[in-house]
Every structure is written in structure tokens, then in C-alpha cells.
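Need the bound structure for iron/sulfur cluster, inputs here:
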Amino acid sequence: MKTLYMVSLGCPKNLVDSEVMLAALEQAGYAVVEDPNQASLLLVNTCGFIRPAVEEAIDAILELAAYKDEHPEQLLVVAGCMVQRYGDNLLAELPEVDLFVGLDDFSDIARLLERLTPEPQIVARPGSAAYLMDSSVARRISAPSFRSYLKITEGCDNQCAYCMIPSIRGRLRSRTIDDLVTEAVRLQETGVRELTLIAQDLTAYGRDLHDEANLVALLGALLQHTDIPWFRLLYAYPASVTDGLLQLMAGQPRILPYLDIPFQHVSDQVLRAMNRHYRRDTLDDLVRRIRRFVPDCAVRTTMMVGYPGETEADVTEMVEALQAWQLDHVGVFQYQDEDGSRAAQLPDKVDDDEKEARYQQVMTTQAAISEQRQQRFVGRIEPVLIEGVSEESELLLEGRSRFQAPEIDGCVYITSGQVHPGDIVPVRITEAHTYDLVGEVVNDQENS
Ligand code: SF4
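Answer from helper R.:
Posting the output first, comments after.
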């Protein structure tokens, strides 16, 4: 029996690659199983852009390799960003693995398995990847069927000094608008109600295409050719969020009032050292424009503390900026040297204890802001996409509002109402906490 057990690590972009491999293997006759003991094929799709992700991938691989001790006939295959980043070195490091597949070859995994050699092998083009999927490539949607991701580009041209992604995923490559509309229509037919657009830099979409393609044009086409009720935007670049995009969001309720825009820092000297192509005044202006065009927009960002050369004054400026901007969701990360990155060569490293102290300072500041921001929802009736029974309690249902992205933000706990996963229903918000909301489904009469 051809059976498959798969572990998908990393970001939603990597999840889309996993779904492509799942579809290819299912077409080749593999059935997905929940128990690794029952699998003839063990597959790990890895993340590899930061050390903790690499360590998590190696742990997952070694955990599955242990099953091979009991079932020597099993195949262990490893794909994804870690393979692209480390290439041939992995053969010696992980002899338990039968096949390593790089980012240019994962869609071909079924054919590669037919041509396996007795010796462990690697199929990965050295250097950064060049492959770009299109709508002719099948995907087996893994997330609940009512929500999915649309990967609109591959790669990135921004060259941030701390980031290894361009050296792994390659230069910016945009899919055409027609191709993305074709995939979106297919996803709608499978029941998708929330489609999240993803990329390394969403706002760079179309820059490499020699036509009028850009994010606003793409969204216009998706709104015109599908009936998908919710479009969500993740990974915008601060310097590239145009008034045109904000105006479109203001006028189109199907584009959710939600923006994920990694700022990474606020201090000009740190942003310069990171090779981020904007400065503090760009961020102030951006927040002002978002508030002007889409006043209720939820803004998510990420901040990095402990970057080489960062001073206490830089962190104070970050705290003051967050207090001034009042953003909804902020993920805070501690800088780590990455082998091969330009930032790793920079002097004036910040020691771990100091990094931790700065991390706590920013997290504490933001937690109070997030809790305050959430209060604006209490008493409002908000459309909520139902996810299903809550993991917290069988007595509760869980959903997400327009202001909460899947897998990264909080949720809405629903205390009453007859609803089903995938429904978008009016919910009166009765409580607001730092990350989560509580509410009850209201009937049409109450909602009118
Ligand atoms: S924009 Fe993002 S993916 Fe691109 S180089 Fe910068 S951090 Fe990396």
C-alpha cells in the first residue's frame, strides 16, 4: 500500500508547496495516513531561513527516522527551504534520509520517487531557486476547506541584511493575473470563503512582469471574477503600501480591513543597517494614511530587537512609536546571527540578556496597547468566520473576525448560536481580551 505521512513546517508559502506535493503523491496513488507507523513514505517539508527553524526541521526528521528502525522498508524524504539552503552537505549530516528534494523539484516528487537509487540522493539545484508554480499545478488543500492561501509570487529582491530568504527562494517572480484568477476560481469552487494572499513581499507583486500587473490590479481582477467574500493581505512592505491600495480597501468590503506589514524596527540607524528601504517618517506617514483611508483597519507588524548596533535609545524610540501608533497585533523577535547573512558580519552585537530585557520591554508595552485596541469591538456586531469547536472547550465554538488572521492572531469564542464551520455569521462581541474576543451569534432580526 502506498501510504504517506507528512509533516509541513514553516510559513503559509511553504504550506502551499506541501499541498502541491500532497496532490502529486495522491495522484500517484498514495493515501494520507495519520500514524507514521502505517506509512510507506515519510515526508518532511522543511523551513530553513533561521536557525530555530532548522533545528525544528532536524528534530522532525530524526523523529521520523526512528520509525524506520522498526520499519526499514519505509522511505524518508525531506523537501523545502532547508534542502535548498544546505544542499549536498545534508547527505552526510542526515544519512537516514533516502531523498532530499529542493525548491525547483518538489512538484515532481512522485516521478523522483519512481527513480530512487539504493543510495541516499539529493535533487536540488545549487544556489537559490527559480521555480514558479502556476494554476496547472494541482494542490490538495490542507487547511479547513473554507479558507486557503494564494501564493502570488516567489522570491524577493529586497535584500534585507539579516535575511537568507533571497538566497534560498531566489529573485522576485510574479505569477500572471490570469493565472491567479484561474486558481482563485478553482479554490472558490472547493468552498473557499477566505482567501489570504501571500508572498515574501506582497506589495512587490508584478514588478518583474512587463505589463500593468500590480497588487491593486490583481485584487480588482479577483473581486471581479470570483464571489469569494473575504480577501486578506499578508506580508506587505512598508515603503510600498500605496494610496491606491488603501483606497481600494476602503471601497471594497470583500478586502478585509487588515494589513500585515513587517516594520522590523523604527530607528533610522537600525533600519539603515538592516538595509530596509524606508525610515521612521515613512512609517509615521504610513500609519497616518492607513488611519485616514481605512480608519478601522487592523494592523499587524513584526519588530526585531537586539540587532547589531541597536542602542537603548533605539528601543525607547520603538516603545514610544508603538504607543503613538496604537497597532493591533505586534510580533516581537530577538535578532539572531544567520550564517551567510551580511548582518552576521556586523560589529556591536547585543548580548542575549540585554536582548531578552528589550524583548520583554516591547512585549509588555504592546500587550497593554493590544488589550486597549480590542475594547473597540465590545458591543459591536461583527461578521465572524466559524472555524469549529474550540480546542479550549467543547462547549465553545471558535471563529475569527475580519481583524484576526488564521494561525497568527487570536480568535472569537462563541458562547451561543447554531452555526457550522465555514459560515460567516453576525456575532455581538460581549468581551475583549489582549488577543481574543468573546461573543454570541445574533439572529437576522437583531442584526437588521
Ligand atoms: S522583505 Fe522579507 S523576505 Fe525579503 S529580504 Fe526582507 S525580510 Fe527577507
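Comments: The first helix runs from residue 12 to 27. The radius of gyration is 23 Å.
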